[in-house]
TrEMBL record:
It holds the Pfam family Copper-bind. InterPro entries: BlueCu_1, Cu-binding_ET, Cupredoxin. The keyword Metal-binding applies. PANTHER family: AURACYANIN-B, COPPER-RESISTANT CUPROPROTEIN COPI. GO terms for molecular function: copper ion binding; electron transfer activity. This is Blue (type 1) copper domain-containing protein. Residues 1-17 form the signal peptide.
Length: 143
């Protein structure tokens, strides 16, 4: 009887193991099918400085701030970057509406999931005072 129970338990355990997840629970809602891209936020630089994606691809960016000051990541085309730079210079320090930006304190990590709709090129920019104009930006090439 023990042998029969043991043999019956094997397939049940195999199914349960297959349903498990290695996810640490630290993800953005709905980002389970997204490709993960890790981005280091250094003081006045992103690494990598360019990311290649496909049109229609969902990407979960994991931004790790290894610098000494707060950094942010805003995803948008050049016009959106210019507008966001003006908003941030307005003194609010707020990214406003939309889910295409995160702020990351020194030593912390934040995530942002974004779906790239069409081919082209957009930017990731940090709009803390002087950072974007100092070159803290990365290019996203969408094929």
């Amino acid at each position: 009887m023990r042998r029969v129970m043991f043999l019956l338990a094997i397939p049940v355990l195999a199914v349960l193991a297959a349903c498990g997840s290695s996810d640490d629970g630290n993800t953005t809602a709905g980002s389970g099918d997204a490709r993960v891209v890790e981005v280091e936020m250094r003081d006045i630089a992103f690494a990598p400085t360019a990311v290649d994606v496909r049109a229609g691809e969902k990407v979960r960016f994991v931004f790790k701030n290894t610098g000494q000051v707060v950094h942010d990541a805003f995803i948008g085309d050049q016009a959106a970057q210019d507008e966001h730079e003006k908003e941030m210079r307005g003194g609010h320090g707020d990214h406003g509406k939309g889910g295409n930006a995160v702020s990351v304190k020194p030593g912390k990590t934040e995530q942002l999931t974004y779906t790239f709709d069409r081919p082209g090129q957009i930017l990731i920019g940090c709009h803390q005072p002087g950072h974007y104009t100092g070159g803290m930006k990365a290019t996203v090439n969408i094929a």
